[in-house]
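ok new one. same drill as before - structure tokens go in, u give me an amino acid for every spot. 125 of them this time. try not to just spam alanines like last time pls lmao
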């Protein structure tokens, strides 16, 4: 199956959790953070959790995390959902660039949602 590197992330919101589903082969950049901010602008208020569903083969400029912290300060938790061992290895590197929020990686969306809801409850959201 050929990677679809031209399909931008798909965003959605459920409660006080924002979701992004990236496509295989996508390179996550600051433009994607801008798109997320525009998408959630009228959909979320106050602190929220962000869950990214990432297939294998997605790359990210780690500096995106610093930019995201600046323009999305209301994100209190970041969960990455992936099944590939490479995704888990990459996240270990990415974690060095994540600050000002709780973060973790999960193999299932259900686990990530339960974790995010727990963090939000602790935050009083």
């Amino acid at each position: 199956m050929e990677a679809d590197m031209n399909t931008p992330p798909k965003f959605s919101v459920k409660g006080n959790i924002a979701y992004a589903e990236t496509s295989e082969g996508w390179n996550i950049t600051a433009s994607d953070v801008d798109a997320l901010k525009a998408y959630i602008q009228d959909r979320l208020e106050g602190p929220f959790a962000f869950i990214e569903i990432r297939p294998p083969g997605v790359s990210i400029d780690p500096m995106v995390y610093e930019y995201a912290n600046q323009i999305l300060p209301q994100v209190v938790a970041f969960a990455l959902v992936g099944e590939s061992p490479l995704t888990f290895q990459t996240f270990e590197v990415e974690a060095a660039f994540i600050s000002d929020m709780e973060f973790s990686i999960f193999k299932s969306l259900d686990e990530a949602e339960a974790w995010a809801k727990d963090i939000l409850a602790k935050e009083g959201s």
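The first strand starts at residue 10 and ends at 14. and btw The chain is about 35% helix and 25% strand.
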